[in-house]
């Protein structure tokens, strides 16, 4: 029994030692595996943390973009609502204008062909009445013009007659003055008083050039004298005109040289 126990115990020890040695290797391998796993887990955590940070940054950017888009959508919606309100107001105004046009159209449709015929007849009658009245007025105006023309001729004839009478009176006055001067000189001569002879005119009378001029409407002695290059006084002296303003249209004047 002792021999058996002596042989068995070392074997057991060897076996135990071997088992312990194997277990230690396995434990070492397990520890190495655990360390490798820990490193892998750490790297995974680091990678996961970076991905999480990137994902969080990306989510923040996406959130900002979404907020900006939401604000733009709200602004666009508000603009669309304003435009829709303006469009509704325009449509309402257009509808009211269309309604007014329809009312006017209906009121115009009330007039029938007979009404237009009546209006046309009334217009024709009014036009005929106006034409008749115009013709009567024209005839009356023509009569008035003819009467005025006749009166003007009479006035001119009377003016010519008066001018002739005036010139006759002036000649008579001049003759009477000359006669009076002769009588005065005769009386002075009989009384023995010497009287000087009347001085002869220093300016000889204007000579007749043989030209005559018929006075036209609007002419005066000044314009006629300027036309022929002579003096107004010469024309007056040659034609016996006392007042240069008393001339008539159609009167013939002698023009001095």
Please give a structural write-up.
- With 257 residues, this protein is mainly alpha-helical.
- It folds into three domains: 31-98; 135-195; 207-257, Membrane-bound Lytic Murein Transglycosylase D, Chain A (Roll).
- The chain is built from four helices and two strands.
- The chain has helices at residues 2-110, 113-190, 221-228, 232-239; strands spanning 208-214, 252-256.
- The longest helix has 109 residues, at 2-110.
- The radius of gyration is 72 Å and the shape is elongated.
Give structural attributes:
257 residues, Membrane-bound Lytic Murein Transglycosylase D, Chain A, 3 domains, two-stranded antiparallel sheet, 2 strands
Note the topology.
Blueprint: H1 2-110, H2 113-190, E1 208-214, H3 221-228, H4 232-239, E2 252-256
**Uncertain spans, ≥5 residues at pLDDT below 50?**
197-209
Strand order of the largest sheet: 1-2
**Helix content class:** over 70%
Question: Please, how many helices?
Answer: 4
Q: What is the string of helix and strand elements?
A: HHEHHE
Strand percentage: under 5%
Shape: elongated
Q: How many distinct beta strands?
A: 2
Q: What is the number of independent domains?
A: 3
Described by strand count, sense and barrel closure, the largest sheet is: 2 strands, antiparallel
Q: Report the C-alpha radius of gyration, rounded.
A: 72 Å
Oligomeric form of this entry? single chain
Helix-strand makeup class: mainly alpha
What is the mean predicted local confidence, pLDDT?
A: 78
The N- to C-terminal Cα distance equals 205 Å
